[in-house]
């Protein structure tokens, strides 16, 4: 590690300019306080001769060591106490306050807007007079305190110049909200030591120009070939491409092996072609409207994801650009989930090897709540990914909204990031050198501190929201300015020519070379690896191309079941278990021994134990999942002695797969999106999100609509995510009764997902196992029970776990004489137990009750098999607890009618409904109304 950083710092031509100063600063800090510098640097400095070692030291000094040696001496001399009168001391304090003011508010004066439209109010704290200093003091020498000027004393003029250069040029630094002193100092040193403008080598700057040329070249090419066609071009924000190039290359140098990127439309095609290496020919096909995938709906070109490998100084790096819907910012937590899955696969617990980069738009970053949720998850146990590099492509306008009075209440669009104390660098997109510096510091910070960091790339959109739009209708002043404004590339090329970095001809030749490559259909991402190392990412081949099947052998030999059941109930001696929890574990031991019928919690836990034993990691998150909303799970046992947690399923066997269970923070949207991202990256795992109450998933409706239900058909991305949604009418009112089954069923088509309503412990056992044992990967939506967790009849036997399978239809359980049956009641879920109880009480042997345990894909054959013996049936009823306009009645009745028709011509047309009357709310708020409605619908099922 030490070697790696040193190599990076001293050898990389990208960084040599800035880091000499940076290392000097660190060394100074080390001399003051060795514990204040990172470990690897401390070890390195420890080996250096101390400044007071004297000439007799027998280790010959290298030039670098010599430099440190001198620096130490100077430092000691400078720290000698200064003499002076009282006024001098007071002025000294004011100078330090001035330095502090620049650190706090310099960004407000910085030149970060290429268009110069940013309204900048005066910042009085940056005036000498504000600090009772005057022009006459400019020549007086003052101590510089912690300001890294390279000397401990300097004339005030020099101090002010350095502060202006550091904090008020092309980078506006917001770091003073960070409370951790080490982090703050580290950041200050990175900027102050080089006045926020390191001198990059000619080679580096030529490379930046080349990447800018690529960024501009692609847009020019597409604009001339497809004028007026929507592509959400990058024009105005071209510096984004050298920025991404640097992040990936430098990341590779750090040993990063995978980079996962999330971003919205703007600049996406540019990233795809110039960074990820998508073949320009493929893009052209998409512009020509060719169908590029055989199955599914496909998606527009600026939503497409991509994967490739590129070469970096640290070796090959795998890049994945996540597929993205139009719903802004929702892809961020998806990216985080995918990154976490990759980190888990690599046992990369601190996130060194997989880097998330989320690219945002300014308006959406300020406006979308999911951004806040994503920041909130960034340091939590369940969701952290070792820090994310956030880039805001800040066009200073959201579609047609640019007036800050309408767009937001915060000063910057990035202010939300301060909630996690992320450093924020606002950088002028027309100053690619500054962009490069901000990028390097951002990545170094992430790798050093494993926390989120934000680069706000302040730019503009040359052609409006998209190329079919006329922006001057709504932004006349801005677009008048843009019309006259030269491109970032033109500005930079001219600067480099003026500074003698390259000739005008060389700069022009870059444009030609790029265009020729594009026309020839060559790849234009210069680091692209043509034959990628596939071991860098998950192999999805075993899971591809499977047709739908509801059947899988999920049985488990009895001996193995008993062994695992015994193990999952073991709690070590030192763990003192709370009384009610102890009873649950005692009962589980009895269930295992055959002394008690199995309940839901036992079967569910045993399903996890068996899957772990089969080599499948299990991950469960959601609100209160450790215990379970209704106290049935208790997968996490809290030691009453010291509050520590013990998770029996993590102690099943040596070397077992990972069992992860975490209570989530109180979010549905970001959390569900995260788990979607995880599940689409970890095909071998059982990944579960559980809602506290089923209807709360609607806080994450975007994730269901845009990803879970449609990701496979739009993008060919398979997903085996399981959602456990507590559902059932038990008088808890409009909000805690329904998981809005109808919404899921209405979205079902083309076998896109499975919607199941298991009613016995054995059914949930086999259903969870089926989800992973089959190679088919489809989202599974489970309407999971509440009262059934403890219902006396909702039990199973160990034999049913050992030998059974998930039954998509459960036939009638009473021993009816088939020919006597005149009515069939079809139902799903908890109402079955109410119906069965009513039938028994009323002695009705002419009515069969069948449970449809899988509502989609609808099990037509299985249902027919279960009813075909009832040859004398005269009518058929669908009974549901939900109101008429909800539940399965509308979305599924055509399937039921079709099966009824198979049994008897005309029977399908006579399918009746028994349930609550149509209602705007899912359920009544009064227990008495609930009870009456429930009684009525059960009675109706028999007597209608
Ligand atoms: P990634 O690491 O996400 O870039 O994925 C690498 C490759 O694995 C992709 O190019 C796909 O071929 C395949 N792949 C990744 N995720 C999925 C998925 N959810 N479903 C199907 N194939 C996938």
UniProtKB/TrEMBL annotation:
Q: Which residues are in the Transketolase-like pyrimidine-binding domain?
A: 598-791
Query: Quick check: keyword Oxidoreductase in the entry?
Result: yes
> Pfam families, alphabetically?
2-oxogl_dehyd_N, E1_dh, OxoGdeHyase_C, Transket_pyr
GO MF terms here are: oxoglutarate dehydrogenase (succinyl-transferring) activity; thiamine pyrophosphate binding
Q: Which top-level enzyme class is recorded in the Swiss-Prot or TrEMBL entry?
A: oxidoreductase
> What reaction gets catalysed by this protein?
N(6)-[(R)-lipoyl]-L-lysyl-[protein] + 2-oxoglutarate + H(+) = N(6)-[(R)-S(8)-succinyldihydrolipoyl]-L-lysyl-[protein] + CO2
Superkingdom of this entry's organism?
Bacteria
Give me the Gene Ontology terms describing cellular component.
Answer: cytosol; oxoglutarate dehydrogenase complex
* Cofactor(s) the protein requires to work: thiamine diphosphate
Q: Does the keyword Amino-acid biosynthesis apply?
A: no
Catalytic activity, EC: 1.2.4.2
PANTHER family, from UniProt? Answer: 2-OXOADIPATE DEHYDROGENASE COMPLEX COMPONENT E1, 2-OXOGLUTARATE DEHYDROGENASE
NCBIfam families hit by this protein: 2oxo_dh_E1, PRK09404.1, PRK12270.1
Member of which family?
A: Belongs to the alpha-ketoglutarate dehydrogenase family.
Report the function annotation for this chain: E1 component of the 2-oxoglutarate dehydrogenase (OGDH) complex which catalyzes the decarboxylation of 2-oxoglutarate, the first step in the conversion of 2-oxoglutarate to succinyl-CoA and CO(2).
Q: Mind telling me what this protein is named?
A: 2-oxoglutarate dehydrogenase E1 component
Species of the source? Halomonas shengliensis
